[in-house]
Write a sequence for this structure.
């Protein structure tokens, strides 16, 4: 009896202390959501296989293996030599693009979609479910449970698969609802699920670097608007170097010196010349079959480019080939009617009814293959699109000195580095930005932010000092910290060590290739 009284007094004391504890203390911010967390990955986020449902006998289709690529290199040399050293006549370009198409189809042709937007039977992702025991264990440890899928498919097909997976996770954990963290193309899949099934089984959603409003480079590629950017190539090289490394200044000075010689401008001229000569041929022979028949690609073409891209690919290029792609177009139209035409209301439905947040990234040089490669991005998705509407400066630039915050003057939504005005986002209080973090990366700190968004009703960018609206990624520690005026100029990227590793692997590949080509063993 005395033990029970003591326990009761101790519990009362703890409750009293809790009542008088500071309301904003970090300890009170929950980070373990009551419901399991399902991770919906993005585009090209996993391998594809032949016999994909047969764990013991499946073989890799995508990406092509190093051995498969090596076998194709010797056959490509004559066509490449004709372009490099020959007269570069139209016939030379035809031979060159025919060879590119031939190699692409041998390497990954079985990954192409058909005229109905369907994939070769028996090919797909390794999408078997984890055991119910594994699902329960991950749930109990606040770890996410990944929904694996064939990222080539239409969001409507994948939403149906996601529905089945959600039901499986609910059954395994005994919960009535789940949370979802949706990365990149996964945002299209997740929101399509909501359009089909509603929110009855959903308690929270985090959109991580979402492609839901589109990826501009997808649209530009589908419009045939390829343009290499010399400055962008230099920026990519600089982004491989992390501030604070011993050799940082030497590497940056080297790249700057190369810029001054015009070598990057020359590379832009050369690549643009190749594009000008060969793009139409490559579009017809490779791009249409490779990308344009994957329904997923079309879900990520921005609205402002969509009609023109469809007209170019289907009414010009494919029409000239005399192909019937009505089955594929039906899939695209079905997504448009259900989702594309109702973007705002679907987002509002989620934001108004469950715990919700958007996490975008910025100031990583975009892939420099289109005219829009100077826009602020996470290397793949424009920050404006990923944040659902932020006003952004260009890469490594700032907003004009006289720029005033566009909306809600009672709060500050301008980043400390003056690169972003978040007041124009659809949901400014629930949109976070991570500077210097690349599109596919998800650090432990980033996942912790997801958990806090999902665990706390009304969690906003003003709730938690540890996770304000603007955060800085540190590649050396794979961690986040609040972005401030003091650290705003830091440029945290993939690190000098990874630059060295890249060159090491590149030269290893060259040596291995030479060794095989002359029928001698590789040197290491």
């Amino acid at each position: 009896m005395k033990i029970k009284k003591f326990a009761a007094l101790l519990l009362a004391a703890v409750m009293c202390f809790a009542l008088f504890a500071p309301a904003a203390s970090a300890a009170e911010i929950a980070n373990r959501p009551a419901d399991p967390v399902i991770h919906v990955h993005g585009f090209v986020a996993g391998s594809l296989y032949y016999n994909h449902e047969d764990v013991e006998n499946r073989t890799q289709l995508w990406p092509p293996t190093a051995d498969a690529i090596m076998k194709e290199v010797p056959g490509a040399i004559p066509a490449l030599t004709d372009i490099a050293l020959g007269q570069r006549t139209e016939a030379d370009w035809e031979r060159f693009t025919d060879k590119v198409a031939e190699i692409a189809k041998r390497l990954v042709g079985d990954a192409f979609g058909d005229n109905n937007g369907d994939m070769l039977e028996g090919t797909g992702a390794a999408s078997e479910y984890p055991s119910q025991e594994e699902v329960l264990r991950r749930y109990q440890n606040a770890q996410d449970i990944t929904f694996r899928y064939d990222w080539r498919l239409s969001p409507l097909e994948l939403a149906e698969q996601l529905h089945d997976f959600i039901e499986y996770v609910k059954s395994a954990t005994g919960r009535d609802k789940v949370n979802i963290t949706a990365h990149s193309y996964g945002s299209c899949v997740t929101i399509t699920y909501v359009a089909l099934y509603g929110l009855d089984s959903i308690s929270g959603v985090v959109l991580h670097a979402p492609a839901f409003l589109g990826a501009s480079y997808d649209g530009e590629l589908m419009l045939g608007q390829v343009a290499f950017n010399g400055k962008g190539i230099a920026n990519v090289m600089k982004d491989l170097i992390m501030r604070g490394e011993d050799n940082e200044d030497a590497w940056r000075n080297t790249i700057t010196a190369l810029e001054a010689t015009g070598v990057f401008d020359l590379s832009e001229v050369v690549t643009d010349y190749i594009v000008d000569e060969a793009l139409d041929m490559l579009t017809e022979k490779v791009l249409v079959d490779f990308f344009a028949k994957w329904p997923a690609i079309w879900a990520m073409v921005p609205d402002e480019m969509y009609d023109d891209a469809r007209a170019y690919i289907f009414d010009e290029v494919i029409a000239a080939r005399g192909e019937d792609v009505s089955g594929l177009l039906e899939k695209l139209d079905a997504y448009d009617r259900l989702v594309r035409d109702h973007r705002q209301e679907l987002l509002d439905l989620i934001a108004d009814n469950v715990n919700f947040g958007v996490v975008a990234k910025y100031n990583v040089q975009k892939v420099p293959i289109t005219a829009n490669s100077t826009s602020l991005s996470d290397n793949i998705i424009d920050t404006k699109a990923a944040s659902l509407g932020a006003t952004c400066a260009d890469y490594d630039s700032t907003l004009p000195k006289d720029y005033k915050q566009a909306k809600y003057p009672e709060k500050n939504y301008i980043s400390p580095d003056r690169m972003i005005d978040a007041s124009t986002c659809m949901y400014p209080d629930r949109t976070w930005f991570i500077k210097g973090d690349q599109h596919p990366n998800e650090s432990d700190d980033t996942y912790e932010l997801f958990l806090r968004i999902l665990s706390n009703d009304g969690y906003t960018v003003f709730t938690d000092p540890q996770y304000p609206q603007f955060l800085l990624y540190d590649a050396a520690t794979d961690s986040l910290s609040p972005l401030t005026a003091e650290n705003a100029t830091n440029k945290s990227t993939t690190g000098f060590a990874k630059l060295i590793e890249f060159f090491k692997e590149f030269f290893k590949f060259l040596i291995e290739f030479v060794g095989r080509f002359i029928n001698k063993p590789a040197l290491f």
Confidence is low (pLDDT under 50) at residues 1-27, 493-511, 513-524. The two ends are 75 Å apart (CA to CA).
